[in-house]
Structure formats: structure tokens, C-alpha cells
Specification:
It is built from 20 helices and 22 strands. By secondary structure, it is an alpha+beta fold. Among the domains are: about 460-535, Arc Repressor Mutant, subunit A (Orthogonal Bundle); about 550-605, Orthogonal Bundle (DNA polymerase, domain 1). Helix 1 runs parallel beside helix 10 (about 380-400), helix 2 packs parallel to helix 12 and helix 12 (about 445-460) crosses helix 13 (about 465-485). The N and C termini lie far apart (about 60 Å).
Length: about 600
């Protein structure tokens, strides 16, 4: 056996979290190895072959603004693009695209291979190597099943659903990280040996059908947008034919079949005891939870241009294969459909994320970062965002720099990480716009203006991307100045644009020179002007929060010694160990009165 392989950063797992982690670390100059059991499964879409959606689309835009790969990859391989929630305000708009799943995987692998400083390795990591230090243990590398040792100063674990994963097809169980791929056993034991607590979640996936066996005449076509919008801020347009999706519905006969077979459904026999995602339930759960509904919507989504496989969105199930066959045939348009892959449920280990610092480094082991579903989240987008931040922070730490910790008023990514490390989880975490209290500011269309200057300063985004944002900023500022300087009898054009009913077309009618303003700039100007009053009020709230965040809490504070602090607050604060008063206030079970008691104690300790 050869000697150890030496790197700055080793990333374990090449799903959506792993590839963003590895590329971010490499962009920051760290010699990085991306180690995965199967290179032909890089960025594989295990579930829905789609990227984005409401809140999730905002995350993809933020990943792109930070120099990540996801937006570039979906723009290159998408087969249908839609902007969701167009009838609502701009804070609710969410870009979504169906992907050619095989082309997406190939494109992400190509981007990884082109990234300087990044090496791809096909091996299964079985153990974490750690050395003791005076403060806390520090990770120093990994060992693979083949016995190879990869020395590293930081490790990012992106294990997805592979930690002691178990697949469920009705009563049949088999180990697996997903269909056709082995589960990972050693890493779970390694984490427990290091003192990290693990728990179990579950998720599921629907059957895939042969599209040639579907009677689309009985379904409703769902086209993409006439003018599809790219995800990446580097792209101006998508010039590609789009494929149709289709909509059908379950039927009372299908519901009757499910109810008759609940005794064979792992979720209802006690075979699966772990919690699944509330907002993406199995069809069995839908039928039980919404017993009065006569039907549920089903989306038939093609998985690519060169395959006939169709993803049956809305029909996630772990019912036995024979029941799945009959169930599918009781849905309009699917009476003669042929199943290509059966749906299944999967249970897996995750590490409750209150064990992490806001940088996604574990509190117990220095240099060990966790990202993606191993932190209890669900969704490609949430995983990719965590991966980018974990990989970047691993490289920044090695360079002796402060971690990249985005605030809740800076990014959806900041909201997600703060939620994870301060609130814990009792179900798989999914991002929603309702989680972001500053969502008017955190729109999908302005992520580049919010984050690219920061990414460029750190080295995550290149000069070309930064210059493109600066040009847009200048155009936005010049256009707003022009509106403020142009007057009608009723006041300035800027004042007129603040009215909710006023459109940009009306602005052009008053000032024809505005017709030359690029669409993206006009949209930013309109949003900035229309929501200026709301944003000003949000700025005051943000300032108050930042003042609280300036009150740091000592890392070694003994909450049991804080006089008059309620027992529940002592326990919650000791469990999550917030870094500042603002973070403490977001912990469930900690009241404003608790915060007042805690602040008095801290100020007394400081002698102020």
C-alpha cells in the first residue's frame, strides 16, 4: 500500500452538498479531494429531477451569486423553466426548472473536473482520523475501505442519506443509501465514537414510469414559460426548446386501494418509526391525513430528453410493488402505464444540527464540517447551499480567516443555517419563504447584488462576475436618479412608480429614454422604488437585531449559575450554546424575560 495522500480539505460524498463544498474550497485555494463511492453518481438526482421552486429558487440564486455550480448546471441542462407565484409579489417569486437528470450529472462532473485545485477520487470512506489537542480533538484525515489514508487539515462530510440507510419496499427491507447503492456503516460509528449524537429521519420517492405507456390525452399539459429566465446571473437567456409536463389526479378508487393496504405500508405497521418531511408526505400519509379529499394532484415530469422515464411527482410511496402496480393503474392516463422503478422509503442517520457552529464546523471536533441531509435537511438546494458554505469555511479556517456566516437579513442561506444551529429539528428541514422575516429584501432577483461583492472579496467569485454586478448596480443607481430628477405635475416619476398599480410600461410612456433600460435593471429599479418604504422599516428592525448580536455570550458560560434564569431556558441555552443575544432569542423555549436575566448576568460579569 502506498503512503498517505495529502490534501488541505477532503470532502466525503459527491451529492449536491459535496460538489459545492469541494468546488468552494478549491476556489479559495485549498488543495481539495472529493472522495465518493461512485464517480458516475456525482450530483445524482435521487428524487425529483428538478431544481428550484418557491424559496428553493432563491437559494439557487444565492449559490450562483456566491460562485457556485448549481445555477450554471441547471441552465445548461434544464428541459422546462417556470417562474412560480408570478401573480404574487416579487418576494414570493421562485424560479424552478425540470432537469435532464443524466445531462445534469454530466455537467456537474465536467465543472468539477475543470476546477483548478480539485481532485476526484472514487473510494468509500470508512473512518475519520482524529488527533487529540489541548482544546478539543482535531480531524486529520480519513481512511477508506481499501485502506488508503487521505491526510487533511479539514474534512467536510456530505453523506446524504447513506449513513446506515435502509430502503423499504413494503415489508421488504434492504441496506442502501439509495436504490442500487450501498449504505455506509463505518462513518456513523466514527461520528458516535467522537461524541456526536445521531438520530433517524425518513424520506421517500415515487415510482418512475415508461412515458410511452402513458395516455397523455387524459392529462392536462403544463408548459414552461414563453420567456424562460436563467438561474445564473451570468446568463441573459435560455435558448432551448422546452418539454411538456402533464397533470393528472388520484381517484377515489386509488384512495380505497391505499386504505385497504395500509396494513402493508411500513409507515403504518411500525416498520418505519422515524419522522419524514411534513410538506412532502407519502401518498399513504396524504390519504390518511386528508381523508375528506376525493383526489390529489399528480405531476408527470420527464426525466430527460434521451429517456422515456417519467417521474410521478406527488405519488411518493413505500407500498409493496404489487400495490404500486394497481395504484398507478387507477389514475387517469396511467391505466396501462408500465413502472420502470418502484417507489420506496429510506431511513437514515443524521446528526442533529445544534451540534454545529454557525460555520457548520462541529463543536466537538475541530476541522470537521457537516453539510446537507446529514444535518437533517431535505432538498438538493438546501444541501448545495450548506455544502458551499461548509467548504468555503473549511478553506477560510485553514487560511486563518474568519468564517463566512451570513446573517438572516443577508440571505436565505443565512436563515437556514441559523435555523439549523439555534432551533434544532423534529422533522426534515425544508426552506420556505415564511421562514425569512426579511424576504422583501431577500428576493431571488437581487441575490447577485446582495452576495457577489462579498463572494468576490473572499475569492469565491471571480472578477468577471463581480464586474457584471457592478455594472448593474451603476445602471440601477443612474436610473433611479433619473426617475427622481424627472417631474410631472403630480411629482417625480419615482413618486409615481411607488404606487402599487404603476407599471414600468407607464414609466416608459412618460419618459421614452427608459425604453433602453435593460429588463433586469428595470425590474430591480421597480422593486427598489416600490418597496423603499417597507425596506426602510425593515432596516430599523435589522439595526435592533444587530445591536443584540453585538452582545456576545461567553462560550464557556455556565447557565446553571445565572441567577433567576428558568430551568427550561438553562437547558435550552446549554444545549444550543448561542454565540450572541440575538441568536439566544431565536431558540425555542427562551422568552424575552429569560433574555433580560441573561443580559444582566453577562453585563455584571463584564463589570458594565
Amino acid at each position: 500500500m502506498s503512503g498517505p495522500l495529502n490534501f488541505d480539505v477532503v470532502v466525503i460524498g459527491a451529492g449536491h452538498a459535496g460538489v459545492e463544498a469541494a468546488m468552494a474550497a478549491a476556489r479559495l485555494g485549498a488543495a481539495t479531494a472529493l472522495v465518493t463511492s461512485r464517480l458516475d453518481a456525482i450530483a445524482r438526482m435521487s428524487c425529483n429531477p428538478a431544481i428550484g421552486g418557491v424559496a428553493k429558487g432563491q437559494i439557487v440564486r444565492e449559490i450562483d451569486a456566491l460562485g457556485g455550480a448549481m445555477g450554471l448546471a441547471i441552465d445548461a441542462t434544464g428541459i422546462q423553466f417556470r417562474m412560480l407565484n408570478r401573480r404574487k409579489g416579487p418576494a414570493m417569486h421562485g424560479p424552478r426548472a425540470q432537469a435532464d437528470k443524466d445531462a445534469y450529472h454530466r455537467e456537474v462532473r465536467r465543472l468539477c473536473q475543470q476546477q483548478p485545485g480539485l481532485v476526484l477520487r472514487e473510494e468509500t470512506v470508512d473512518d475519520l482520523l482524529v488527533e487529540s489537542t489541548a482544546e478539543r480533538p482535531r480531524v486529520v484525515g480519513v481512511r477508506t475501505q481499501s485502506g488508503h489514508v487521505y491526510r487533511a487539515r479539514a474534512v467536510v462530510l456530505c453523506a446524504g442519506t447513506f449513513l446506515r440507510g435502509v430502503l423499504h419496499y413494503g415489508p421488504v427491507q434492504q441496506p442502501g443509501g439509495r436504490a442500487g447503492e450501498e449504505a455506509v456503516e463505518g462513518l456513523g460509528r466514527a461520528l458516535e465514537r467522537l461524541g456526536l449524537r445521531l438520530a433517524r429521519f425518513k424520506t421517500g420517492t415515487p415510482p418512475r414510469l415508461d412515458g410511452r405507456s402513458i395516455d397523455y390525452a387524459q392529462t392536462e399539459p403544463q408548459p414552461g414559460d414563453d420567456l424562460p429566465e436563467p438561474f445564473s446571473f451570468l446568463h441573459d437567456r435560455i435558448d432551448r426548446d422546452q418539454l411538456l409536463c402533464h397533470i393528472t389526479h388520484t381517484t377515489p378508487a386509488a384512495h380505497e386501494l391505499i386504505r385497504a393496504n395500509l396494513a402493508r405500508a411500513p409507515m403504518y405497521t411500525g416498520q418505519i418509526a422515524s419522522t419524514g418531511p411534513r410538506y412532502c408526505p407519502s401518498i399513504e400519509t396524504k390519504i390518511v391525513r386528508f381523508a375528506d379529499k376525493p383526489r390529489h394532484q399528480i405531476f408527470l415530469e420527464p426525466e430527460g430528453r434521451r429517456t422515456h422515464d417519467v417521474y410521478v411527482n406527488g405519488l411518493a410511496t413505500s407500498l409493496p410493488p404489487d400495490v404500486q402496480e394497481e395504484l398507478v393503474h387507477r389514475i387517469p392516463g396511467l391505466e396501462r402505464a408500465k413502472i420502470v422503478h418502484y417507489g420506496y422509503a429510506i431511513e437514515y442517520d443524521f446528526a442533529p444540527p445544534e451540534q454545529l457552529l454557525p460555520s457548520l464546523e462541529t463543536k466537538r471536533v475541530a476541522g470537521l464540517y457537516l453539510a446537507g441531509q446529514v444535518n437533517g435537511t431535505t432538498g438538493y438546494e438546501e444541501a448545495a447551499g450548506q455544502g458551499l458554505l461548509a467548504g468555503a469555511n473549511a478553506a477560510l479556517a485553514l487560511a486563518g480567516k474568519e468564517p463566512l456566516v451570513l446573517a438572516r437579513d443577508q440571505a436565505y442561506l443565512g436563515v437556514m443555517i441559523d435555523d439549523l444551529v439555534t432551533r434544532g429539528l423534529d422533522e426534515p428541514y425544508r426552506m420556505f419563504t415564511s421562514r425569512a422575516e426579511h424576504r422583501l429584501r431577500l428576493r431571488q432577483d437581487n441575490a447577485d447584488r446582495r452576495l457577489t461583492p462579498l463572494a468576490f472579496a473572499l475569492g469565491l467569485a471571480n472578477r468577471a462576475r463581480f464586474d457584471r454586478v457592478q455594472r448593474k448596480e451603476n445602471e440601477v443607481a443612474q436610473t433611479i436618479a433619473l426617475l427622481e430628477a424627472t417631474f410631472l405635475e403630480s411629482g417625480s416619476l419615482a413618486k409615481l412608480l411607488r404606487r402599487p398599480e404603476t407599471t414600468w410600461t407607464e414609466m416608459v410612456g412618460h419618459l421614452p429614454d427608459l425604453a433602453d433600460v435593460p429588463h433586469e435593471v428595470a425590474r430591480q429599479v421597480s422593486h427598489d422604488v416600490k418597496y423603499s418604504g417597507y425596506l426602510a422599516r425593515q432596516d430599523m428592525e435589522i439595526a435592533r437585531t444587530r445591536r443584540l448580536a453585538g452582545q456576545r455570550i461567553p462560550a464557556d458560560l455556565d447557565y446553571g449559575q445565572v441567577a433567576h434564569l428558568r430551568m427550561e431556558a438553562q437547558e435550552r441555552l446549554a444545549r444550543f450554546r448561542p454565540g450572541d443575544m440575538a441568536q439566544a432569542g431565536r431558540i425555542s423555549g427562551v422568552t424575552p424575560a429569560d433574555l433580560a436575566v441573561l443580559l444582566v448576568h453577562i453585563l455584571r460579569q463584564r463589570g458594565t
